[in-house]
Design brief:
The complex is a heterotrimer of chains A (105), B (130) and C (95).
Chain A (H helix, E strand, L loop, with lengths): L20 H10 L6 H17 L5 H12 L6 H7 L4 H8 L10
Helix pairs in contact in A: 2-3
Chain B lengths: L10 E7 L8 H14 L4 E5 L21 H7 L7 E5 H6 L4 H4 L6 E4 L1 H9 L1 E6 L1
Parallel strand pairs in B: 1-2, 1-5, 2-3, 3-4
Helix pairs in contact in B: 1-2
Chain C lengths: L2 E5 L6 H10 L5 E4 L11 H5 L4 E5 H6 L10 E3 L1 H10 L2 E5 L1
Parallel strand pairs in C: 1-2, 1-5, 2-3, 3-4
The chains are: A mainly alpha (105), B alpha/beta (130), C alpha/beta (95).
Chain lengths: 105, 130, 95
């Protein structure tokens, strides 16, 4: 496995262009997460959100977006916590190669 | 003070944006606040006035200037539950800005005159100007 | 003594603009920077400043979404900015 590109103190990529799926796997591994298709669904959704709005959504907005795009059964915090334990919005955005969520109060 | 009927409070927060984007951080900070308010289910209204109306222009491409795209942030507002975007119409007129030609078509804007701006202030519990 | 004038405030700063047009002379060059590029939206500039070549910094124009198709303003890169500085005897900033 190759070295990870430059990251900030919390492990978010400094240059968003450095991201690719292999990097995502590596960042996830550092969080003890093995990426399944369910993880990729959320990662893709986050990257599309960032593409559209230039923002990494905080938890509430991520839940809302998942509900809208992936359906009611995936649009809740329990589901996201099961995929990205601890702090789903922060960890998923990190794996997706995006900045730390804004308004992450 | 006359004994007017009490005004209904429709907004927890009115954010007034009066500066052009990019040359200072004020527009960015105002929008951050709007998104934070929306995230926490506050009723937020935005009022664009004076040079603040320049924030509404379409096809902003600040990448080369290495700045965050504020047009994209504006487009996010409705997803964050912020749906009231008011514009002082005279400010547009003074700057030769034409809604159909220069203004971001994704935004649902309400054009206000001075009188209805006063009413908007009255209907808001807290006002923060940027 | 040709002079390069740079203006980086929006047209809302009327007094600044008045000072500029009272100072600028034919043969001078005007370069619009930052919020100064909003003058590209208005015809006011061309009416008030004759025999003066006007440039606007390209990155600032694009950042703000300003259409430049029917304007007499030329777009300048940072390299052009440097060249303009060298070609003129002095530089005056209006901000």
């Amino acid at each position: 496995m190759s070295e990870l590109p430059a990251c900030d103190a919390q492990g978010h990529l400094l240059n968003l262009e450095d991201w690719n799926p292999a990097i995502a796997e590596a960042i996830a591994a550092a969080e003890n997460i093995e990426l399944s298709s369910a993880h990729w669904e959320v990662i893709t959704l986050l990257r599309e959100f960032y593409q559209e709005f230039g923002l990494s959504p905080a938890m509430r907005i991520l839940v809302k977006r998942c509900k809208e795009k992936l359906g009611e059964d995936k649009g809740n915090s329990m589901y996201l916590l099961s995929l990205f334990p601890g702090s789903p919005a922060r960890i998923a955005s990190k794996i997706a190669g995006l900045p730390k969520p804004t308004n992450c109060l | 003070m006359t004994a007017d009927a009490p005004t209904t409070i429709d907004y927890d927060l009115l954010i007034v944006l009066q500066h052009a984007p990019y040359s200072s951080a004020q527009a960015n900070e105002a929008l951050d606040l709007a998104l934070a308010g929306g995230t926490f289910d506050q009723r937020v209204a935005l009022l664009f006035i004076e040079d603040g109306v320049y924030q509404l222009m379409s096809e902003q491409a600040p990448d080369a200037a290495q700045q965050k795209n504020l047009e994209k942030m504006l487009n996010a507002l409705s997803f964050y539950g912020v749906n009231t975007l008011a514009v002082e119409s005279h400010s547009l007129f003074e700057r030769d800005l034409h809604p159909e030609k220069h203004i971001n078509p994704k935004l649902n804007l309400e054009l206000l005159n001075a009188k209805s701006i006063q009413a908007l202030y009255d209907r808001s519990k807290t006002v923060i100007r940027f | 003594m040709p002079t390069l004038h740079t203006l980086n405030r929006s047209p809302a700063n009327i007094q600044l603009f008045e000072q500029l047009i009272n100072t600028i002379r034919p043969g001078d060059t005007l370069l619009l920077l930052e919020d100064g590029v909003y003058y590209c939206l208005q015809n006011k500039l061309n009416r008030k400043i004759q025999d003066i070549q006007v440039y606007a910094l390209k990155d600032d124009v694009h950042a703000r979404g300003i259409p430049i198709e029917q304007s007499d303003v030329l777009l300048a890169s940072y390299e052009d900015f440097v060249n303009l500085t060298c070609e003129n005897d002095k530089l005056v900033n209006w901000y």
